[in-house]
Structures are given as C-alpha cells and as structure tokens.
Amino acid sequence: MAVINAGEYSQQELIKMLDNISDEEIEINGLCGQRYVACGWQNQKRLTLHGVPGNNLAAFADGPKITVYGNAQEGVGNTMSSGHIQVHGRVGDIAGYGMRGGELFIKEDAGYRLGIHMKAYQDHKPVIVVGGSVGAFAGEYMAGGTIIVLGLNTLHPLAGPYCGTGMYGGEIYLRGEYQSKNIASNIDQVMISGKELDNIIDYLHRYSIYFKYPLEKILDEQFTRLTVQNARPFAGLYAGFVS
Known about the structure:
Blueprint: E1 2-5, H1 11-20, E2 25-32, E3 46-52, E4 62-69, E5 82-87, E6 103-106, E7 127-130, E8 143-149, E9 169-175, E10 187-192, H2 201-210, H3 215-218, E11 223-228
Parallel strand pairs: 1-2, 2-3, 3-4, 4-5, 5-6, 6-7, 7-8, 8-9
Antiparallel strand pairs: 9-11, 10-11
C-alpha cells in the first residue's frame, strides 16, 4: 500500500502522483482542500483519505472505492459512473451531481443541491445515503436513482426548501418528520413501513455498519417516499406542447 502525506506536495504534484501510482491501495494523510482527487479514475483501487478533500472528489470516476475520514467539500461524486464513496463527516454542495451509477454514503449532513440531475441507465442505479439533513434543492431535476435522508444527529431541518423541484424520475426517502412546505408541488408523498422498505433496507443496513449506528434505531421512525406525479412538470411552458 502506498502512503502519501499530501502536505509535502503541491496540488498539481499530488494529482499527477496519484494518477501514476500502480498500487491498488493508497492512503493519503493531511488533506486540506486539495481538489480533483481520484477525478476521472477508471479502476478498482481502494483509496483511504484523512483530512478534507477539496472540490470534485472522484468526479467522473468509474470504479474506485473511497473512504474519507473527515469532511469533504463541493462536488463529491460529480457525474460518477460507478464506485463507492464513504464520507465519515459531512459534505458540501452539489454532492452526487449528475451521478450515473455508484454509491455515496455520508455520515452527517449534506449541503445544497444534493443529487441534482441524478439519472439511471439499465443496471446503473446510483444511490446516495445521508445520515443527517440535506439543504435546499435536493433531488432537483432528478431523473433516476435513489436518495435516502435519515435525519440522525442533526440540528437542521430534514430537507431544505424546494426538495424535488423539477424531478421527473427516481425516488427520495425521508426518515421521520419533515416540513411538507419544503417539498415541490409535483411530488407524491407516501408514508411507508415494513415490507415497503425492502427496496432500501440493504442501504440502511450498510449505513449502520459503515458508521456504527444501530439499524433498529434507524428503523424506529416512519419513512416517506417521494416520487414524481408528472414526468414533465414544465411541459406546458414550451410552445407547441399538446397535453
């Protein structure tokens, strides 16, 4: 396993070194906002990060397994095709932007516009699990995939304003109480429990393992599933549209 101290290299030197390392397991210590770590990687490498990776961690990545022991800045998993990311802290804005596949597990809160433009294709079905809360515009223009928000140990509202705005596919699951006024008008809100959780129970179980939080405590609150009512919410705004 290669072990790197990020503080010994410039931004460009660090990224170039990472792209050229042949080791299948890499550990980076002392990260403090360095951008583009694992950006564009197409491999199955395991990457362990200590500190705070900067913008676009694993952007456009296809395959790597990444664990962050700390927080992460904006754009985590931006347009990721496949792979697995765990963040043992919180993330900034636009995490999971345009995700086409893969998994993003976040122990704490996520910023604005989580999972916007997420999509699914054939057997590629991205998933984001957030242990805390999400900011405004979560799931904006979402076309596929799954977002799960658990509301554990957070001081913020479960979901910020405009959740699901422009959404035309996929599902969002909210655990516990939330403000209905923050959910877009085009969204169906259905409370579920028991067998109805089968679609997400594996993700809940894995969250409990990754972040050492009892599954039974996760399941002691009701979940609400958000799905789209109309797949073309803005169709009437375009000239020539016939309903």
